[in-house]
Amino acid sequence: MRPLSSKTRLLEIVVWLGQTLRQGEIRLHTDGTENVKLQIESNKINLDFLQGNLLKDMLDLGAEMEEESILKRLKTLKDLAEKLKEKGLTMTISHKEHTVLTLGKEAHPKTSQVITRTNAIEVNNLVGLVKLVK
After folding, report:
1. Four-residue CA torsion sign, 49, 126, 123, 118
2. Secondary structure of residue 109 in the 3-state scheme
3. How many Å apart are CA 68 and CA 93, to the nearest integer?
4. Assign residue 97 a region: left if phi > 0, alpha if psi is -120 to 50, beta otherwise?
5. Which residue has the higher pLDDT, 34 or 18?
6. Strand 33-41 to 90-95 pairing
7. What residue ranges do the domains of the chain occupy?
8. What Å distances lie between residue 128 and 18, 42, 49, CA to CA?
């Protein structure tokens, strides 16, 4: 049996959280600094990165590539976004409580659909997204 890739495991964890948990909040701290806040409420997941470098690291891990393009990193979210939409779930990715991406059911993309080739990813704040993944 072949082990699952990091991207597949991350996808399964996020979908499982959205389907299993109805309400709750998790805060992750490192060395006394709050880094990530995860809030779940009825089919909605908000992942708030309080320290910007963590999202970049996750996207790099999920992409399993060395390319520096923000557009390439954004494309790595496509599978997750489509799986969330298929399951009727929405995930927002925020930076310091400002939404930068919406993935899944409630995403209403405009120009980002041309880049990501999916209607399951909405870029809410391009400047904020660039700050997070740069």
Report:
1. negative
2. coil
3. 20
4. left
5. 34
6. unpaired
7. 6-133
8. 24, 26, 11
* Residues 122/109, Cβ–Cβ less than 8 Å: yes
Read off the tokens for 71.
């557009």
The rounded radius of gyration (Å) of the Cα atoms in the chain is 14
Tell me which residue of 32, 36, 30 sits closest to 49, measured CA to CA: 36
Q: What is the pLDDT of residues 68-126, one digit of tens each?
A: 555 666 666 788 889 889 989 899 988 888 898 899 999 999 887 777 788 999 989 88
Please list the alpha-helical segments (H only) found in the chain: 6-20, 53-63, 70-75, 78-86, 112-116, 126-133
CA-CA distance, 73 to 78, in Å (whole number)?
10
